[in-house]
Amino acid sequence: METKRLVFIGVGGQGNLLASRLVGEAALALGIPAVVSEIHGMAQRGGIVESAVLLGDVTSPIVSRGEADVLIGFEPLETLRSLGKCNKNTLVITNTHPLPPFTVAAGQGTYPPVDKSLELIRSKAKKVIAIDGNALAKEAGNPLSLNMVMLGALIGSGAISIGAEDMKKIISTSTKKAFLESNLKAFELGMQSAR
User: Fold this and answer.
1) Sign of torsion, CA 89 93 96 101?
2) CATH number of the domain enclosing 105
């Protein structure tokens, strides 16, 4: 079985841990071996949150430098910071909506222009799918559904062997019912944006 190494990177509160968990659940439901790991960092203070999903015959939950097959970045600067995990064949799916760190808000730092970050990302990856995930989440009726948009973009990219209907089943059974309609709409919008 082919191995796929996925890295999800974002800022605390963006929902990348839930997204990675849902991918792992969907894989297991389809009989695909999966290992999910996470690093919380300073998540509660708006810090970096990284998770990984390894599909196939793997023994370690770690994605080392240059090993990521897919990098899913929920925030453009965090995507840029995680480029070390990528190689020349990596697919990068990134949100283009910035969420500047506290130091920028406090006037102690400068947020780099998103277009310049995207140039650097494109120079290091085989393919880049760049979407305004926050705008799509808002369009879906729930600004907190960025994770579902990014999950939809991943499935829509065709990078992994989990289909849309299988993923929707997992979303339907593993997320809060109050948000199900907006989650599924956000997932659809993410899928469409990646195609």
Assistant:
1) negative
2) 3.40.920.10
